[in-house]
Design a protein that fits this description.
2 copies of one chain form a homodimer. Chain A contains 8 helices and 16 strands. In chain A, strands 8, 9, 10, 11, 12, 13, 14, 15 and 16 form a 9-stranded mixed beta sheet that branches. A 6-stranded antiparallel beta sheet of chain A has the order 2-1-7-6-4-5. The two termini of chain A are about 25 Å apart. At the A-B interface, strand 3, helix 1 and helix 5 of A face strand 3, helix 1 and helix 5 of B.
Chain lengths: ~270, ~270
Amino acid sequence: LLIDGEPRDRVPGRDRGLHYGDGLFETLAVEDGRPCLWGRHMARLAEGCRRLGIPVPDTAGLAAEAEREIGGAARGVLKILVTRGRGGRGYAPPREPRPMRLMELSPGPGHPPSWRTRGVRVRRCGMRLSRNPALAGIKHLNRLEQVLARAEWTDPDIAEGLMLDTGDQVIEGTMTNLFLVDGEGIHTPDLSRCGVAGTMRALVMEAAREQGIPVSERPLCWSELERARGLFLTNAVIGIWPVRELDGRALDPQVVPGPLIDAVRERGFIP
Amino acid sequence: LLIDGEPRDRVPGRDRGLHYGDGLFETLAVEDGRPCLWGRHMARLAEGCRRLGIPVPDTAGLAAEAEREIGGAARGVLKILVTRGRGGRGYAPPREPRPMRLMELSPGPGHPPSWRTRGVRVRRCGMRLSRNPALAGIKHLNRLEQVLARAEWTDPDIAEGLMLDTGDQVIEGTMTNLFLVDGEGIHTPDLSRCGVAGTMRALVMEAAREQGIPVSERPLCWSELERARGLFLTNAVIGIWPVRELDGRALDPQVVPGPLIDAVRERGFIP
């Protein structure tokens, strides 16, 4: 790990990230020794910091630290975690926060390569996402809902679990965003009340629009998933996973528009 | 700090408490060198661990560590934080978690003593609490909503901010539970969808019932607060604070039933 630019394994025990989840993170694919979609991740990190009132870290500094943490590795997953640091009294943030930065390079997630080509098996989670527009979209450190949802299954052949919110809307997977494909185009859940606005989700939406594929961002309910032509999942590490089975029901994994896959590859994301 | 029983200032950088808020905590008053309401705090900690699927720490071991962390101090505030520890892949919890324990003794919070006798000034927060029955009541580490609510004011004479949930119900203060007093008895918000089920809240409710004071636990809306005879706040460190002003409107701070205050003192809580 690189903590505040220093190689060490431990972080301050009074850090507000530990005590309150007072911070956020980014998870990036590393290919050919370079972090993918760097600009998008930095933009989202900055926007999240602004919304939480955490000083935005210097991007050039983060880039230098990322390069150092990646070292000679060609591939992997880079996690960048930023907290509000120490201080303040109880929940009250300090007036002049000194954010803490953590960089961690891990080997790739090791998912079977066939998941990208032949698709994945997916389940529906019982755990719900709570709604709060003030936190919606941010990749913050309050992730107990995802932890409890992911604890619902251990079968290694189930790649992901889909989560509904407390208002019965389908929102996302525990670690991925969701797209539905039908005769009209592609549809992805509205994230104005909960969910993480993924960088790969944004890239896919932009690419679709450029390709003339209609895209909608709107509330989705479970019955629409059951009627869909197909589904696919996205995140910055996996890219795109078609869904081949939802709660035991077979789905056509060949529904992801080819131009979308090409566009994702062309834009500097080549896993 | 005492980390896993060892005196040190830093915690493992891969701890799930930092990465996901995957853990919980207790905050205890220390009086005469002893932690107050120990049994209640341990019971709530155990219940929270069970609900999150975290192995329940050995209470005798925690007691020994608490005694060590308190050392020769007569008074203070003891924080006990327990996380799921390290491990697992992404959000998936490890099969055999090894929880991390952190103990921290701080000096008392330093609130003016008059707040207990003459009452406190309180405001209404704009930040809302999200609803999720799966997490309601637990004093877990996902506290961004409290952090953002507490960041709404800096006036040191405002003791607390009250929070509504996303469904317009009044739930609690950022760090306290709320009671409303009217001609019928005392009322405190239902916490089945959000909020922290405070140990002092439970003690006050029990004491009221024993004293023959009617208690209700039910949904409360803001207009009821505006019509109330009075309000008071509770937590394990402050005990009871009457409210003397709500958003600029004066309230009678002499509404807390005397027998309640006596009962709280008698039950081993004497701040």
